[in-house]
Design a protein that fits this description.
Strand content: 5-15%
Number of strands: 3
CATH architecture of the largest domain: 3-Layer(aba) Sandwich
CATH class of the largest domain: Alpha Beta
Strand order of the largest sheet: 1-2-3
Number of helices: 10
Order of helices and strands: HHEHEHEHHHHHH
Radius of gyration: 23 Å
Distance between the termini: 35 Å
């Protein structure tokens, strides 16, 4: 299962070239609407499905919900993602992933893992404790960043949004009708509250955490 059809197709073709028989759940139902439970709706009868492969990057929320329903099928599965240390995967792992592997994994190794899963062989997950600790650390960092972003005043968020759009301090002053020195003071306050030392770092935080309503 993949949130990008081309990515999923490329992986399927590669695995089939190594002798694995692949079946992909439909992305939409008969009416063309995104399927909320593609795994439960897909007819697996007639297929000897021994394991599932989930490509985590770009999954829609409906697809993530479908992945969280995998335990109902009693089907072992692994999660293939660009960055395993990203805490976005914690809920999917909690839903029963046998392991998380990076998308940089070699094809032979991926085939070996899928074969082991399909045959019910014990699957080692070296470094799982370290990975879970990294998830916890990153979640804490993200929560702190969100709290700092929430500490900005409406005016400071507005100035940061304009900087994010590529305006200079002078252009922000001209657009908002205030003195350039006032804008510089506001920018300094933004940097202090966000705990960063440059406008570039502040803009990067805005890009990650600003609520959609704050964006121009």
């Amino acid at each position: 299962m993949s949130g990008r059809h081309l990515v999923g197709d490329a992986i399927r073709v590669a695995l089939e070239s190594r002798g694995l028989e692949m079946v992909s759940p439909p992305a939409t139902d008969a009416d063309g609407v995104e399927s909320i439970e593609p795994f439960s709706r897909h007819r697996l009868a007639g297929w000897r499905v021994g394991a599932a492969l989930v490509v985590g990057d770009f999954l829609t929320e409906a697809q993530r919900e479908a992945v969280r329903s995998l335990p109902r099928l009693a089907l072992p599965w692994l999660l293939l993602v660009e960055e395993p240390a990203d805490p976005r995967w914690t809920d999917l792992v909690a839903s029963g992933a046998s392991t998380v592997v990076p998308s940089s994994i070699g094809l032979d190794e991926l085939v070996r893992i899928l074969d082991d899963l399909a045959l019910g062989r014990p699957l080692a997950w070296p470094g799982r404790e370290e990975l879970e600790e990294e998830w916890r650390r990153r979640r804490e960092e993200q929560e702190q960043e969100q709290q700092r972003m929430s500490s900005l005043s409406p005016r400071e968020r507005s100035v940061l949004a304009l900087l994010h759009d590529g305006l200079s301090v002078r252009e922000v002053a001209e657009l908002t009708g205030v003195r350039e020195g006032t804008v510089r003071s506001q920018v300094k306050a933004v940097l202090r509250k966000l705990g960063v030392s440059s406008q570039l770092a502040a803009v990067a935080l805005y890009d990650r955490w600003a609520p959609p309503a704050d964006r121009p």
